[in-house]
Structures are given as structure tokens and as C-alpha cells.
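Field notebook, page 332. I keep forgetting to write these up properly, so this time I am using the form the group agreed on. The chain and the ligand, zinc ion, are recorded exactly as supplied. Prediction of the bound pose follows.
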Amino acid sequence: MNYIGQDIISSDLGQMSPIEGMKFLSKQNTLRRPINCVGIALHGGQKTSLTLRPAGANTGIVFRRIDIVGSREILASWENVVDTRMCTTISNADGVTVSTIEHLMSALAGCGIDNVYIDIDGLEVPVMDGSAQPFVFLIECAGVLELDAYRRIIKILKPVCVKVGNKMAELTPSETFSVTFEIDFDNEIIANQTICVNMVNGNFKKEVARARTFGFMHEIETLRAAGLGLGGSLDNAVIVEGNKVLNEDGLRYNDEFVRHKVLDAVGDLYTAGSFICGSYKGIRSGHALTNSLLRALFADKTAWCYIDLGEETTSGGVTNDNLTKDLISVSL
Ligand SMILES: [Zn+2]
């Protein structure tokens, strides 16, 4: 692929370190031990405690609202996404919800975690520093444990695209998992930014994980008036006012804004329930459109197939040998 004039982040699979390759090969992972953090909820502003706990094979990513009695498990699945305004919110059948899951989901995808229980004592995942990096750090501190079960990945077989106005999101077949994103803001600092990140060789951690969420000063005042964004501050978001970044230390990447959109897309795509072998492209996309894209994908059985990485041969004439290599890329 040649994206002329765009920032391309890609690496040769041949440069993959054996350790990284082995770590994410065909088996499912969980955490080695539980780990906890406490942070502020972006919208509600309250202190929230989060504990990541090891889970068995095929559990998936399961949130548990430990502050309530009874039905409190919520599977992080595209089918359970009930609200995509400002952040991604999931709900179980009894209407128990958890919000702002996308940065944690992104970190779990980026670290190759297939199975985990996420115990949380409030409505919202804490915002931490506004990026996925604190969650990546937590996962790395807990350690990654390989389980005796093979992964199943989603192979994109034909293009699927959703459009709303001038916004677009699509998935196309590819031998790796990559995310291309374009944003276009009527603002001097952000303006038009495009990036393509091929999720191989630790690119997620190096190029995406540290990108923070962002907002405009004038929007924050409106949000606050509506009782939202109460936990938001310069400690957990890049705040833009006119042609200035208000954060004292400036940006973490020159194009931090579009990289954060990539981070969100990786997290939202992980609600597919498996790693995706395919290319995502988003133009002015966001949580809502990525969820619509997954709904469109799963509604068309000819557009994708599961591939069990433990099987000798796979459907669609793709050999497992190729897919084992693909998975390294899928594992970011
Ligand atoms: Zn975000």
C-alpha cells in the first residue's frame, strides 16, 4: 500500500523479535496476576477503582460492576454497545452499564490479552492520563500468561463500508491488522491529519498508546454546564483553545490528535470479540461509526470468517502457516 503524503508507520515482519513473536503466537493470553489502579471518571468526576483479574480461555473481556449486587457482568461486545456519544458504553441485558471502555480495550488489544475480568466500582473506567499507556503499564506489571487454548481470529474476506454524511469507516481484506485514520478539523493546530499504523513490532505501544484524548476549551464549558466532563483536566486530556495547546508540556506526538483516533478505533474494534485480520480505514470516524461498521460486518456472513489458529488448514484457502505470521501483526 502506498499512502502518498501520509505518515506511514510500518515495519518489516522480518524485524520482529522472536520473543515478541512467540509471546503473541497462536495461543490465547490472560494476565499472570491481578492488578489494581484508582483514577478519576472523566464525565462523572468521581474516584473509581479498577482491578484487572486473570480469566480462563474463551472468557473474553468481561467487566464486573462490583458496586452493585446481582447482575453485574457485562461482556465487552459490539452487540452490547448501547451509547457512543463522547465514549463507548456497554450494557448487559439488565441495563447495567459501564462507560468509557475504549482506552482500556485498546490497551488490552495492544498487549494481546484475550481473557480478563475487569472489576470496577463505578459507572466509568477511570480516564487516567487520557491515553492507553497507564493500562499498558498495568498489564505489563501484571505480566502476560499464555493459556493452553488456541485463538480464533476474524479474517476480513471482502470490503465492508459505512458512511454517514462526510464520515466513513471501512474494513478491507489484508494480511495484517492496520489502522488508517484521517481527521479534518476547522482548527489551525489540528487541521487535517492522516496516519496509517501497521500494528506490528510493538507499533501500538510505541506509536499509539501514549496519544491522549483531546477537546476544545469552548466545548468543555458546554460539557460542564451539562454535568459532563467533570473529571476532565489538563492532566488527562489535550485541551486546545484557538491555535494553542493549553497543556504546559505540549503534545506527546506532533500528530497526537489523529493517533488518539487510531487508539480509539483499536479499542472499539476489539469489541468484535477477537483480533481482526484486515485493514480499518476511518475518515472523520468515531465510536458510533466503528460500532456501525462492526454491525454491518457481522450482518454479512460472506464478508468475514473465523480462523482457528490451532487448525491445520483454514477456510478460504488460507494456510495456517501464513496466518501464524499474520497473527504476529494482529497482536500489535
Ligand atoms: Zn479516546
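OBSERVATIONS:
- Residues 102-103, 213, 260, 264 surround zinc ion (CB under 6 Å).
- Residues 7-330 form a domain with the lpxc deacetylase, domain 1 fold (CATH 3.30.1700.10).
FOLLOW-UP: compare against the apo run.
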